[in-house]
Amino acid sequence: MALFIDLVLLGMLAIVALRVIFLKDLFAVVMLFGIYSFLSALIFVNLDAVDVAFTEAAVGAGISTVLMLGTLALTGREEKKNNHKKLLPLIVVIVTGAALIYGTLDMPPFGHADNPAHQHVAPRYIEESPKEIGLPNMVTSVLASYRGFDTLGETVVVFAAAIGVLSLLGGPRRRKDSVESGLTSHLVLRVVAKMLIPLTILFALYVQFHGDYGPGGGFQAGVIAAAAIILYALVFGLPLATHVISPVVLKILAALGVLIYAGTGVASLFLGGNFLDYNVLASDPIAGQHIGIILIELGVGITVFAVMLSIFYAFAEQSERTNIQ
């Protein structure tokens, strides 16, 4: 049954991808990209990768769709016609695809029980993770503890991405005027948004502080919380959203999250351990692991929330400036 569901979802992905290739209406392309991400999230759920499904649904089908719509407001809805020859791009794509397929020939069969990862890596985490980390969610154990350096690098990359986007588009400003924007004239949308936004933020907090026992974590929680504020901005307007959470506060939060993460590693150094060695944060190594993981996940959540919202503010303000002009 699981294989049948995978084949159906894979077929739907192929249909969506082919449709995207031939469409000229960029608005329809963005909508199909959101559907593609949602189908991908369903595949991850069927593969029991719920943590990845959370991220794909929130980022791919949610925030990315909103940002691409903001880009369309700056560029245009219709794809411009070009007179370039299509033969050369087709050859490049075919050659690149063939090289990638050739590179996979030496890889072990997907999901085979004799694969090196299943013989050495997986048993090590499955057998030792409960003893060393003490968390039932091994995904959190791997990402937050065993791969703590990598996750710190990913957090820094997210922070650097915000710096790059804000440098190109210009940082959003908190407005003192009360410009009418958003969908304030739609009573039904306002009522539904007021019901959904608190529940979304509550769910983000649950994902944040329950990620060590169930699917979730700082990245997913940050994206979900940012989506709640983005929904508020879309319905009630950007000026009101920037009064709720100002861009200046977001810049501080983006840096603060990275500092919390890195500061946890520095604290472990001062306590006699290695960088990001949570065992020394408490008298009991398991308790120290819990404290360290909670702290670094909090840092990740704060940074991701602030970065996602800052990028949305920047795109939304650019769109409003274009409309005014």
TrEMBL record:
It holds the Pfam family MbhD. It is found in: Cell membrane. GO terms for cellular component: plasma membrane. Residues 188-309 form the Na+/H+ antiporter MnhB subunit-related protein domain. Residues 12-76 form the MrpA C-terminal/MbhD domain. The keyword Membrane applies. It is a multi-pass membrane protein. Residues 113-181 form the MrpA C-terminal/MbhE domain. Its main location: membrane. The chain crosses the membrane at residues 6-22, 29-47, 53-75, 87-105, 151-170, 191-209, 221-241, 248-271, 291-316. It comes from the Bacteria. Signal peptide: none annotated. Keywords: Cell membrane, Membrane, Transmembrane, Transmembrane helix. Belongs to the CPA3 antiporters (TC 2.A.63) subunit B family. This is Multisubunit sodium/proton antiporter, MrpB subunit (TC 2.A.63.1).
